[in-house]
Specification:
728 residues; alpha+beta; Ribosomal Protein S5, domain 2; Arc Repressor Mutant, subunit A; 5 domains; 8-stranded antiparallel β-sheet; 6-stranded mixed β-sheet; 14 helices; 29 strands
């Protein structure tokens, strides 16, 4: 018989309760919990090897979040009808958990750890990603895997002007902020999300509200751990250290590394110089070795690690003490900018954005409604009309690597750019009916290629004629702290990203923030420093925006001549069937005759039609055709008609697309006709007037003669010409 599970229940506001439970499922894992709210339930497990692999020099942490379709009573739509590789949404959720958990482990802990979080029961109104990191942290908390602190993670939205923790799906549709925030009891760890041009003060306020909610969740985890009786963490094998060797490395290379660091060199030259110093140092140590004091392979490996530690310390101290950066810039200075639009002849929009040694070539492609992206999760499937893909080929950093599919980094960077630019995209209800795909190919990279993607994407969208009202730019910031000193760095290099204590990316317009991605690696970051960093980021963002507006100040009035044309129409829903026709006959005929693509669907209780075509005249022809179908014939109106059939009693004509009526033989001409032979034939055009409808059948009655002047009557020859004649 299973032991009684251990539970902890807490309130997250508005009477909504979250339950954390351990001891019932997956008991052979080092740590296992379920987290549930409503019908939503997540299972999180953690397993860690007892010893590191031989030669291991880094911390191998794997985090995977997966949604089981059975959790929502659905069968996957794939060919095999089972869950396959992680979707982009699952990858992004995995990254959110990973980025929050990774700093919790000791720096010298090198044992492999695997954290798996699985959605096992879905609730249509509850977003599971907001609780996934809580589940992962709780699994670690009830295990003996060594972590330094307990964390948690929440989503915060602003609904009708009020902040709300973990709002429902329905509430998020009316929220103008969407941030996921991770923190320990004392410190923020990670922030990611989007907003509709919120201010820096709004973001800081949201962080404060979220942190209070996180503290409640951390307390619940601590109480659950105490109930389980976890009293300590396991011991682990630490990497060997040689302090004497460390001193030798610092003594030999410190001044040399400092000279290179302050040399204002380019990325590759600086890297080559550092490598040359390292090789010189190792050669010196090997030459000084003796049989009694050999320089072993293990010592060589440690010396390399100490050399990298030296680089880290020297560069940080230089920036903090001398306010000098690796490329010679001031702390707030942005690297040289260069940008162009319309750089490629065939894409529907293109831009080349270069900032220092980072470069993005971005294209925009305009497609039809048939090109929309299906985004499928356990809870629901929906289509997206805005797609952004980010590619990071190895040549962008001067490296040789295998070319495979996009990795988690590419998915994460592309998502941040997509969420930022999406804030300026036209609403689906607007006349802009295109599906838009933005592709950023990074050609060079030395610091924040994701922010280059945002800038290049904004430029390319305007070049394509997508009616975005404002430019969106982005900037990557860094922070270095030591004791009481700190330095906030604008537009960081790749090396500065590695050695910083906080790196964060902020995107936005002149009027507010559109996206944020932030990772904080130090304890006790004062909120005043955070505010200063956000203000410095705003100044850098505005600087880049000025250059973007000089390049292209507003979206082009029309799409490029070679881009597909689109017209969006809205009709009463009762006409949808008439436009489609029986078995799709009418809409297929329109597409065949005009060479256009026509998409029709019911949205908000009305018909929404999008017409796509390469030639403007073809789109106009299809538009007029549909207008004719949905037009309501008016008695007394005149129409251009085409004869469709001849009968002995009259001619059937089509006077509006899909609408026919009878011109009776008596309504063809003022002259009495016995037959229509030689008068009209099929295919003839004529103007007709709608004179009524048949009261029994409802069929339309039309007249041609009503538009022909009535001939004057001729006088009889024998008729008297004067009144007098009548008196004879």
């Amino acid at each position: 018989m299973l032991q009684q599970p251990i539970r902890k229940v807490f309130d997250i506001g508005d009477g909504r309760e979250v339950t954390i439970e351990t001891g019932r499922l997956a008991r052979q894992a080092d740590g296992s919990v379920t987290v549930s709210m409503g019908k939503c339930m997540l299972l999180a497990t953690v397993v860690a090897n007892k010893e590191p692999k031989e030669g291991q020099s880094f911390f191998p942490l794997t985090v995977d979040y997966q949604e089981k379709f059975a959790s929502a009573g659905r069968i996957p739509g794939s060919f095999f009808k089972r869950e396959g590789r992680l979707s982009d949404y699952e990858v992004l959720t995995s990254r959110l958990i990973d980025r929050a958990l990774r700093p919790l482990f000791p720096d010298d802990y090198l044992c492999e750890v695997q954290v798996l979080v699985t959605l096992i029961s879905s609730d249509p109104e509850i977003l599971p990603d907001a609780m996934a990191c809580l589940a992962a942290s709780a699994a670690l908390a009830v295990s003996d895997v060594p972590i330094k602190e307990i964390i948690s993670e929440v989503r915060i939205g602003r609904v009708n002007g009020q902040f709300k923790i973990n709002p429902t799906r329905s509430e998020m549709e009316n929220s103008d902020m969407d941030f996921i925030i991770a923190a320990t009891e004392k410190n923020l760890m990670m922030v990611e999300g989007e907003s509709e041009e919120c201010s820096e003060d709004d973001l800081v306020a949201a962080l404060g509200v979220a942190h209070e909610a996180i503290r409640v969740q951390i307390k619940a985890q601590e109480e659950l751990r105490a109930l389980k009786g976890v009293s300590g963490k396991r011991e682990y094998t630490k990497p060997a250290q040689d302090e004497a060797l460390r001193e030798k490395v610092y003594g030999f290379a410190q001044s040399k590394v400092y000279e290179v660091a302050k040399g204002k060199l380019g990325k590759h030259e600086r890297t080559d110089r550092f490598e040359a110093i390292e090789e010189e140092m190792l050669k010196s140590f090997e030459e000084a070795a003796t049989e009694e004091a050999p320089f072993t392979d293990e010592q060589k490996k440690m010396a390399k690690n100490y050399f990298h530690d030296l680089q880290y310390d020297v560069v940080r101290d230089m920036i903090l003490n001398e306010r000098i950066r690796l490329d010679g810039r001031s702390l707030t200075e942005i690297r040289p900018l260069d940008m162009e639009v319309d750089v490629l002849p065939s894409p529907h929009g293109s831009a080349l954005f270069t900032r220092g040694e980072t470069q993005s070539l971005t294209t925009v492609t305009l497609g039809t409604a048939l090109d929309e992206l299906l985004v499928e999760s356990a809870a629901k499937s929906e289509y997206s009309k805005f797609i952004l893909h980010y590619n990071f080929p190895p040549f962008s950093t001067g490296e040789v690597k295998m070319m495979r599919g996009p990795g988690r980094r590419e998915v994460g960077h592309g998502n941040l750019a997509m969420r930022s630019l999406k804030q300026m995209m036209p609403d689906s209800g607007d006349d802009f009916g295109y599906t838009v795909r933005v592709v950023s190919d990074i050609l060079e990279s030395n610091g924040s290629s994701s922010m280059a993607t945002v800038c290049a994407g904004s430029l390319a969208l305007m070049d394509a004629g997508v009616p975005i009202p404002k430019h969106v730019s982005g900037i990557a910031m860094g922070l270095i702290t030591k004791e009481e000193k700190f330095a906030i760095l604008s537009d960081i290099l790749g090396d500065e990203d590695h050695l910083g204590d906080m790196d964060f990316k902020v995107t936005g317009t002149r009027d507010g923030i559109c996206g944020v991605q932030m990772d904080i690696k130090v304890d006790g970051l004062p909120m005043e420093v955070m505010k200063q960093a956000l203000e410095q980021a705003k100044a850098g963002r505005l600087h880049i925006l000025e250059a973007m507006y000089k390049t292209i100040p507003e979206a082009r009035a029309e799409v490029k001549p070679h881009a597909p044309r689109v017209v969006k129409m809205f009709i009463d829903k009762e006409f949808i069937g008439a436009v489609i026709g029986p078995g799709g006959k009418v809409i297929q005929e329109m597409q065949r005759e005009t060479g256009t693509t026509i998409n029709i669907e019911e949205v908000n209780n009305r018909g929404e039609i999008s017409i796509f075509g390469i030639e403007k005249t073809a789109v106009e022809k299809a538009e007029n055709w549909i207008k004719g179908i949905v037009a309501v014939p008016v008695v007394g109106e005149v129409y251009d008609a085409v004869v469709k059939g001849i009968k002995e009693f009259g001619a059937f004509v089509e006077f509006l697309p899909g609408k026919q009526g009878l011109v009776h033989i008596s309504e063809i001409s003022w002259k009495r006709l016995e037959t229509l032979d030689g008068v009209v034939k099929e295919g003839d055009s004529m103007k007709v007037k709608l004179i009524g409808t048949d009261p029994k059948s409802g069929k339309f009655k039309l007249s041609r003669k009503a538009l022909i002047p009535r001939p004057e009557k001729k006088e009889n020859k024998g008729e008297a010409s004067s009144p007098a004649s009548g008196n004879n």
